[in-house]
Design a protein that fits this description.
mainly alpha, Myeloperoxidase, subunit C, 3-stranded antiparallel beta sheet, two-stranded antiparallel sheet, binds protoporphyrin IX containing FE, signal, metal-binding, iron, heme
Length: about 525
């Protein structure tokens, strides 16, 4: 196809994806992030997570068989049982009595779920499905696909006889869907775009955006001024009141009520801004009003993420090192950080480890709080996972009470201690106990992705690798009993054991998150500070 002045062909960074035609002069970003980068096409939704190249330009990847089986120990044995690691290192009872972080309110940890990127999980995948997802496949591809299929087994979390909180046996855990790259190595797919583009509000696919929008209008759909609940689109669970599931740009919308309130706030903000724009510009087409409102929402979203949220995660020094702060508006000039060679793709190691730091900030309760910041109703987190009833009851009467909790209540510290609701009763349901353990899941997910061990990431971050288990002080003995080799320690385990002044993430996660956000900013052609 000829390349005209306006159109350019960009290959999507995904196996089997067709080239797409991009409008070089487009005023607005696409919904799925395609055509943002006109040179390398990176950052679209439904493309692979990124593997970091090492010093020799080889992808850093650590599968037991080199191509797809979950990571194993250096000596070839299985890595320690993820639940045992969770019990020995991450139990809140092992930590200080006061876990609350006085510098951060719950408001600060919830937005992180917002920018966290979504990977694709599957229940047992059939080769047929693999074929249909990838389109026509050759015979060799078919064999490889079958091979990939063999690796799509369940990878259950084993619970030992001595576990004090979960019954012995095993808990369901399904490997993230894998596809083979050109070298026949298993890769995982990011369902979201790589950009900080409010796709949690608008969705990462045009199909979802269509569901969220009022047709022939500039507005997003609402029901009684709450999030829409179209039948059959999402799944949620409520043991008390049968509820319809709210839909937003991201499927986790009903995971916990404080997160749902954030979704609702941004959803309403779009409609508020769009309505004002319509009043000011009656001659604009509906589509122009929608896109201009979206552009303003994304600008606010980017500004808050980089200037209010990230400094509390990374600390001032890392913010400056990775040039993450926006230019001070008082300087009177806009900054233009865009670099066409920056690849914004999300690192798998950020997805499965570094960005999951927020799980340690979650508290055991989702309380209702009055105007004086007093708790008026205690809602135990373990009772309200995935149940939107707190938001929907009586046309949303509880929303201000939940919203105030976000501002009034301190979140827990970023560390290696996790509340019981997350570590022993995650998604616990009365009719199907016992629930799960977020820590064990995170550890298992890292191995599932073939993410290298903690010490390898320290090396890549130009930090001194840990040489002795004693470096982990209080937890050194437990780690030594669990892991054969210090280089076997999982990234999320070592990363969360690092201490940092000011309660930010430690140096390894600072490096990974800083590296990631720098790319999300500099690799975004539509970054909000850019001229025009
Ligand atoms: C009560 C609050 C939360 C709950 C119940 C929750 C639960 C979960 C669960 C069940 C998963 C999938 C685990 C797996 O791999 O099998 C997950 C993934 C993830 N979570 Fe959370 N989470 C919460 C809050 C947070 C926060 C505050 C952050 C941010 C800092 C965060 C960041 C992530 C990331 C980055 C992923 C990986 C994204 C993906 O692959 O879907 N989460 N979370």
């Amino acid at each position: 196809m000829a390349i005209s002045k306006l159109l350019i062909l960009v290959a999507l960074a995904c196996v089997g994806a067709d080239d797409i035609v991009c409008d070089v002069d487009a005023k607005y970003r696409t919904i799925d992030g395609s055509c943002n980068n006109l040179k390398n096409g990176k950052g679209a939704s439904n493309t692979f997570f990124k593997r970091l190249p090492d010093e020799n330009e080889n992808n850093v990847i650590d599968y037991a068989d080199g191509i797809g089986l979950p990571r194993a120990a250096k000596n070839g044995d299985e890595l320690p049982n993820a639940r045992l690691v969770s019990q020995a290192i991450m139990d809140e009872k092992l930590g200080p009595l006061i876990q609350r972080d006085r510098t951060r309110s719950a408001q600060k940890h919830v937005p992180s779920t917002y920018v966290a990127k979504r990977s694709k999980k599957t229940i047992i995948t059939k080769v047929k499905r693999l074929e249909s997802e990838q389109g026509e496949v050759t015979t060799t591809d078919k064999l490889l696909a079958e091979d990939a299929q063999n690796r799509d087994f369940c990878f259950p979390l084993e619970i030992s006889k001595n576990d004090t909180d979960l019954p012995p046996g095993c808990i369901n855990f399904v490997r993230a869907t894998g596809k083979l790259d050109e070298e026949g190595v298993r890769q995982q797919t990011n369902l979201a775009t790589a950009f900080v583009d409010a796709s949690v509000v608008y969705g990462s696919t045009p199909e979802l955006t269509k569901i969220l929008r009022v047709s022939d209008s500039y507005l997003l759909k609402t029901e009684d001024n709450l999030l829409p609940t179209p039948a059959g689109v999402n799944s949620c669970f409520d043991p008390v009141i049968p509820t319809r599931c709210p839909v937003a740009g991201e499927s986790r919308v009903a995971e916990v009520s404080m997160l749902s309130v954030q979704h609702l706030a941004w959803h309403r903000e779009h409609n508020r801004i769009a309505s004002e724009l319509r009043t000011l510009n009656p001659h604009w087409k509906d589509e122009t009003v929608f896109q201009e409102a979206r552009k303003i929402v994304i600008a606010i979203f980017q500004h808050i993420t980089f200037n209010d949220f990230l400094p509390l995660v990374l600390g001032q020094a890392a913010m400056k090192r990775f040039k993450l702060f926006s230019r001070d508006v008082n300087e009177g000039v806009f900054s233009d950080p865009y670099d066409v060679d920056m690849n914004p793709q999300v690192l798998g190691s950020v997805n499965v480890a570094a960005h999951r730091f927020g799980h340690s900030q979650v508290t055991n309760e989702q309380n209702f709080v009055d105007e004086d910041c007093n708790t008026v109703t205690v809602n135990k987190l373990e009772d309200v996972f995935d149940s939107p009833r707190l938001i929907q009851q009586n046309c949303g009467v509880n929303i201000p009470f939940i919203g105030r909790n976000l501002g009034c209540t301190a979140s827990n510290r970023i560390d290696n201690f996790f509340v019981d609701a997350m570590r022993n009763r995650l998604y616990h349901k009365p009719e199907s106990p016992p629930g799960s353990d977020i820590v064990a899941r995170n550890i298992q997910r890292g191995r599932d992705f073939g993410v290298a061990g903690y010490n390898r990431w320290r090396e890549l971050c130009l930090l001194e690798p840990m040489k002795s288990f004693d470096s982990f002080e209080k937890f050194g003995k437990a780690l030594k009993e669990l892991y054969n080799d210090i280089d076997d320690i999982d990234l999320i385990v070592g990363g969360l054991l690092e201490k940092e002044m000011g309660f930010n993430v430690g140096p390894t996660f600072q490096c990974l998150l800083g590296f990631q956000y720098e790319r999300m900013k500099q690799g975004d052609r539509f970054w909000y500070e850019r001229p025009n």
